Amino acid sequence: MSQVKIPVDLILSKVVEESEKVQSRAKKASEVLLGELDTELAKTEYDVVYQEDRVKLKHYRPKTKIRYKTPLIVVYALINRETMLDLQPGRSVVERFLDAGIDLYMIDWGYPTHKDRFLGFDDHINGYMDNAIDFIRDQNKVDKVNLMGICMGGTFSVIYSALHPEKIKNLVTTVTPTNFDTKKGLLHVWMKHVDVDRVVDTFGNLPADVMNFGFLLLNPARLMIDKYVGFMENVDDKQFVENFVRMDKWIFDSPDLPGEVFREFVKNCYQGNLLLKNKLEVGGRRVDLKQLTMPLLNIYGKYDHLVPPEACEKLIDHVGSTDKKNICLDTGHIGIYVSSKYQKAFAPEIADWLKERDALEKNESPPKKAAPARKAVAAKAASPKKKVVAKSAKTAATSKPKPKPSPAQDPSETTPS
Amino acid sequence: MMDKTEETVDINAMLNMGLKFYGDLWGRMTDQWATFLGQGQTEKKTANGTFPKAQGAMNAALKNWQTLATAMAAPESVSSLLKGSGAMPDVLIKMAQTSVGSFLELQQSLFQRLGRVGESVKAYEFQDMEENIFRLWTDIYEKEFRQFFNVPQLGLLREYQEKTYQTMDKFNLFQANLAEFVRMLGLPFNHSSQVMQDKLTRLAENGELSEDVQAYYRMWIKVLEGHYMTLFQTPEYVEVLARTVNSLSDFHAARDAVFEDMLYLLPVARKTDMDDISRDLYELKKRLRKLEKESRHS
Hints:
Chain A has helices at residues 8-34, 93-99, 121-140, 152-163, 186-191, 196-203, 208-217, 220-233, 238-252, 259-271, 309-312, 315-318, 335-338, 340-358, and strands at residues 46-52, 55-60, 72-75, 86-88, 91-92, 104-108, 145-150, 168-174, 281-282, 285-286, 296-301, 324-329. Chain A is of the alpha/beta class. Chain A has one domain (46-404): Rossmann fold, CATH 3.40.50.1820. In chain A, strand 1 and strand 2 form a beta hairpin. By secondary structure, chain B is mainly α.
C-alpha cells in the first residue's frame, strides 16, 4: 500500500491563521453584542381598524397615491406571525406593496389562549375572515376585495373564495398547500401518522414550542448547527447580527395553534385530502372549488421543504377560474418573502398581476373610505421607536435552510463520486 | 396444638424451597451469562484464551453465588439456621411462618419476573444490543414491569393512588420512547462520521486533502444533512416519532388528572373547569354572532 501524504504542516498553519482570525473576531463581536442593536420587526406604520376577540385587522398607512380600484387583504397562517412580511425597511413585502400603490390590509391572528381551543375552520374562515372582509367592503364601499393568502392562510383563502366568491375580485395564493396527497414534504409524511385526536384532547391548543421543535427537526443539521455556526462566523458584523436576531425573533415568536384548527387541518387536509376532492365541509357547507371563479395567481417555491411544489401546483386544475396562473420560484418556503433577491421578483409580480386586472384608469380616483359602520377599535398607530438606515440584508442570516435540492437526498449522493 | 417437630418441618420445607429457588436462579443466570458470552462475545477472549478481567470476575461471582445458595439449601444448613427456634413461643413461630412464607412467595414472583427479563433480552440478540437497547427496554418495561402500576388499589384513596400510578407508568413509557427517539436522532451523527472517515481516507490516498479546515466542516454538514433527510423518511423513524408524541400526550393527560385532584382542594379553577367555561363561552358567542348577522341581513 502506498504511503498516504497528509499536508499536516499546511493544515496546522491554516488552523493557526484561523485561530488568529477568531481572536480578532471575538474582540469585534463583543463590541457588536454589547452595543446598541436594532432588531425591531414590523416597523411600517399601520392602524388597527377592526378587532374581534384576539384577531385584529391592520390597515397600513399609504405611502403613495393608491393606484388600484380594490383594496388587498393579506391573510397569513395561524403558525408564526404575519410580521415576516415586514421584517425591516428595505426588506419588506408590505413596503413594496405600499410603494406600488396598493391599499393594504392584513389580518393579525393574535395569540390564541385556552379559551380559543374550540375555534375551528368555520370560526376562522366564515367568522373572523368574513367579518374583516365585510368591514373592508363597508369601509371602502366596494363589493369585492382582492385576497392574498399565505401558507395555511392561503388554504383558508381558497376555502373562503370558494364559499364566498361574490366577495373576492382576485385571489393570490402563495406557498399554499392544497394537495395533501404527496410524500414529498416531510410534514406530509409525518402528519399522516399523527394521532391528532389524542394530541388535541390532551393539549387543547397545540403548544408553539412543540410546533417549533417539529420545524427544527425538519432539518436539524442546518437549523440547529449550521445556522449558529454561520452566526459565530459573522458575529462581528453588526448588520448580520441585527438581521440574524430579527429573523430568530420572528421564528420563535409563535402563537399556539387553536386545537380544533389543528385537528381539522390534520384530519381533513393532511390525512383526508378533502379540499381537492371537493369533499371538505366548513360550517355545514361543502367547499366546491368549481365555485372559485375569480382570477387566480398561485405562487410557490421550488425548494420549499414545508409545502413542496407538488402540494401547491394542482390547485389551478381544480378551480372554476379561467384566468389562472402558476408561478414557481427557485427558492424555499420563507425565502420568497425575506430574501432580497426573490422579494424583488415576488412582490412586484403580484403588484403587476393585480394591476392588469384592477388598475385605476387615469382619471379615476380610489374608493373613498367611509367612517367605520361596524365595531372598530380606536386606531392605534404602531410608531417606530427609532429610524434605521436600510442596508442590503444578508440572506444568510435567515435561519430557514438555504435553497437546496430535494430534502430527500440520499446520503450516498453526498459522498464524492 | 401442633406438634413442634411438624412446625420445624414446615419451616424447613419452606426455607428449603426458598433457598433451592435462589440456587436455581443463580444457576440460570450463570447459564444465561455463559450463553450470552458464547453467542456474541467469544471474540472478546484474550490471546491466551482466557476472558478479560471483568468477564472473568463476573463468571466467578455468579458461580460463587450459585455455590453459596446451593450450600444453604442443604438440609443440615437449614437445621442449623433453625437451631434454637424451638425456644420461641408458638405464636411467634406462626407469625414468622406466615411472614417468611409470604415474603418468599413475593420474592419468588419478583425473581421469576427478573428471570424473564433475561429471556426477553435473549430474543433481541446481543449483537444488535446497541441498536435495540431502547426498544428492548420499552418492551421489557411493557411486558414485565408496568403490571406493578396496574395492581388494583383499594379503599378511600384508591382513585388517587391509581392516578398517581398511572402517571408514573405513563412517564416511564414516555421516557422509554423519548430515549429511543433521541437515540435515533443521534444515528446520522454516527453514520456521517463513518462517511467522513472514508472520504478523508480517499482524499488522503489521492493526495487531495484540503488545508482549509472549514472545507471539512462544510463536507460534514452536507453529509449529516443527507443522512437526516434519509432517516426522516424511513417508516421506523415515523413510527418512533408517532409513538413518542402519543406517549407524551398520555403522560400529559395522566399528570393533568393528578394535578386536577390536587387543585380540587384549593380555591382555584381547574383545567376541566376552564374547558367547560371556554366551551360555554364559545357556543354563546357563536349563537350571538349568528343572531347579529341574521338581524343585519333582515
